[in-house]
Amino acid sequence: MTKRHTWSALTRRTPRLGRSEDGHEDGQALIEFALVVTFLLFLLVGVTDLAGLLDAHLNVIYAARQGARTGAVLGNKVDADCAIVGAIQSTLANQPNFTLNKITVFQVDHSTDQPTGLQDVYAGNAQCDASMATITPGATSATWLPNDPAKPPARNTTEFQEDYIGVTLDYSYTWQFDLFGSGSFQSTDTVIFPLDAQVVPTVPKGQGG
Q1: pTM of the model
Q2: Considering Cα of 60, then 65, then 71, then 74, what sign does the dihedral take?
């Protein structure tokens, strides 16, 4: 009787291998681990996409500044828009997950700081041929730069009355992972610069020919 009682007690006290004391802790820990890993993966993917978008946004702003500054320096030169497009495209070359949709060069009134409605609009894939001072494809709308290359653009560079030149870039950023199925993010960035004034030298009185 004593041996049977001892064996029975040992059997009851020995836990089953592969199971916790309450039989549920292992499964609960596995579920919690899966939830935490999933959350961390979503967080990592989201941060990666947002970092890519921020990088594209900063590069677009820089490209718009380069274009506006180029236009401000060239002012009334016939090839001003060509140089603007060239500066923008060279700045945005090899930008990943990025599509430039439209380039708009527009006039801003110096007295009101408001767009006047005069603008030149180019496709996002427009390229400048510096040797010919031409843009391909051409402007879809050209009200601030005459189509006739023999005519200068009507941009006021008179000192204290100079126009402001604005450059707006419309672009799309394609999400690298696209978790929510939105595909891409559409946005625009604008930079405005005053045209460099062209000072006309004057001859002091008494020194003329």
Answers
A1: 0.77
A2: negative
